[in-house]
Amino acid sequence: MSKFLNEFKEFALRGNVLDLAVGVIIGGAFQGVVNSLVQDIISPIIGLFANKDFSNLVMTAGGVELKYGSFITALINFIIMAFVIFLIVKSMNKLATLGKNPEVAVTEECTTKVCPYCCSEISINATRCPNCTSEL
Ligand SMILES: [Zn+2]
């Protein structure tokens, strides 16, 4: 049992699982916003043109009720969610490539140098190596 718990802890403490959990929570909260946007703002506007409450549109065919109004509402929800997620993924990709900017990497490397006596990485301004105490 403790082995199982340890495995679960290892799994849960991995960064990507935490990222995933945050993503799911934000996604859930965000879905509420999109639902409200569609149901409370977009549907009434479309309803203005259709001259009736859009999300409650029902078609009766052979005694079966087809709630196509709420289906179209769900469809609009999906399109908006997909579009926003596309925008988020696009901007994330842009941020990821910004982090890999070669100019940034060069300026980062310029803050250290390699000690000629012990070959360890030390500050570029050091006059004495902190690892082997040699004067530079
Ligand atoms: Zn050294």
Architecture overview:
With 136 residues, the protein is mostly helical. It has 2 domains: 2-100, Large-conductance mechanosensitive channel, MscL, domain 1 (Non-ribosomal Peptide Synthetase Peptidyl Carrier Protein, Chain A), CATH 1.10.1200.120; 102-136. It has 4 helices and 4 strands. The protein has helices at 2-13, 15-50, 68-99, 102-109; strands at 59-61, 64-66, 112-114, 121-123. The strands form 2 sheets. Strands 1-2 form a two-stranded antiparallel sheet. A two-stranded antiparallel ribbon has the order 3-4. It is elongated. The chain starts with a helix and ends in a 13-residue tail after the last strand. The model has no long low-confidence stretch (mean pLDDT 78). It binds zinc ion. Zinc ion binds at residues 115, 117-118, 120, 129, 131-132, 134.
Short description:
The protein has helices spanning about 1-15, 15-50, 70-100, 100-110, and strands at about 60, 65, 110-115, 120-125. It is mainly alpha-helical and about 140 residues long.
Q: CATH superfamily membership of the largest domain, which one?
A: Large-conductance mechanosensitive channel, MscL, domain 1
Beta-strand residue fraction: 5-15%
According to CATH, what is the class of the largest domain?
Mainly Alpha
Distance between the termini: 56 Å
* Total E-strand runs: 4
The biggest beta sheet is recorded as: 2 strands, antiparallel
The strand line-up of the biggest sheet is 1-2
- Would you list the SSEs in sequence order as H and E? HHEEHHEE
If helices are DSSP runs of H or I spanning 4 or more residues, what is the number of helices? 4
Helix share bin: 55-70%
Any idea what the radius of gyration is? 29 Å
- pLDDT < 50 stretches: none
Write the CATH architecture name of the largest domain: Orthogonal Bundle
Principal-axes geometry comes out as elongated
CATH topology of the largest domain: the name is Non-ribosomal Peptide Synthetase Peptidyl Carrier Protein, Chain A
* Overall tally of structural domains: 2
Q: Ligands bound here?
A: zinc ion
The whole-number mean of residue pLDDT values reads: 78
Structural class: mainly alpha
